[in-house]
Amino acid sequence: MNRFDAVADTRIASSESPTARPRWNAESLARQFVGQFAFLPRAWGVVLALGAVDLAWANLRGISFTGWSSVVLTVGFLAAIGFAYDHTGRNARLADVGNYAALWVAFSGVGSIFTYVVATMGMPLRDAQLSTIDAALGFHWTPWFYFIAHHRYLNLPLKIAYESMLPQIIGSILYFAHTAQTSRNREFLALAMLSLVVTTLISGLLPAVGPFIPGHQPEFAKVLQTIRAGTVNTFALDNMKGIVTMPSYHTVIALVLIWVHRPPSRSFPVVAVLSGLMLLSVPSAGNHYLADMLAGAAIAIASIASVRAAFGYETTCAAHRPQPRFFEDDGAGAGSSSGSSGISAVGGST
Predict the structure, then answer these.
(1) For a 10 Å CB count at each end of the chain, is N or C smaller?
(2) Residue 183 and residue 131: Cα distance in Å, rounded?
């Protein structure tokens, strides 16, 4: 029995109960099933294509990356979980966790490398122009930084919110899998992939080290400068830094998180508050110009529009479906076993 049959059988059986909640019809299930297996191979194709670009570009620039074994083992383990539970139909929830966690880890690895190889373009730094744009908008980074730093009740929560990007990504994968919102997991990953590639390419053309207090340059800015200068040519995958300043990828992900958790998803209020705080933290905790955030917001909006157009019915209509609850009812899931999956992102955040 495959995953589709298992879910369909469960829905038919549960519909016989007088107290059963509304279920998706056969057409909706078919769309979900077809969409899932059309998307996953394409997503792996994107990962492999970006990895090939990384390899060619790194060889051209004479830089290398170490620590591949842990990444390959993690991706292989998670992908095996997804494959096994998908094709046995034992637990659709664990299948989604394995499939999407594996893709996120793999894409985080090749995506982080992509930011490093693109930085070797060595285009002129644009900090002066970005600072001028901020001033024209009435934003001055140094006073803002000191204001946040001198108010502990603001500084600590904002630092925590800024570091919440990875936990929110992991939590989203698990939540969407647990609540059978595969289309949201699919949309989230597609948005992250598209926006990271666009963000990275723009950062190569408009590089910046970001604002900082003299004598306290952040570590990521130092790494960026060593890449640009060519003084270091070997990097460890388990110690990658988020070196992209312009546009702000933290801003992109914060807005994407709010979007993919939109109602009727019950997680929306929590994610909206936490991601809103993340946005507020970006200038001070992430050493970003306001212009970086505006560019990141533009990329997020354009990416959402592009993915909605590409996915068509699936993403446009998913918000109007009742949230399926067959994983939350005792004995109602495609499988009754539960589990969790760890995901370790390679590289830093920007």
Answers:
(1) N
(2) 40
Q: What is the C-alpha separation between 205 and 131, in angstroms, rounded? A: 17
Sorted by sequence, the CB contacts under 8 Å of residue 140 that are 6+ apart come out as: 134
Annotated domain spans of the chain: 3-16+25-318
Q: Which of 43, 66, 62 is nearest to 346 (CA)?
A: 66
Token output for 147: 């204001």
Query: Residue 320: which residues within 8 A CB-CB, separation 6 or more?
Result: none
Q: Which two tokens stand for residue 194?
A: 């598209």
pLDDT in tens, 261-306: 999 999 999 999 999 999 999 999 999 999 999 999 999 999 999 9
- The token pair at 174 is 């698990």
> What distance in Å separates the CA atoms of residue 99 and residue 101, rounded to the nearest whole number?
6
Alpha-carbon span 130 to 167, nearest angstrom:
30
**CA atoms of 242 and 220, how far apart (whole Å):** 6
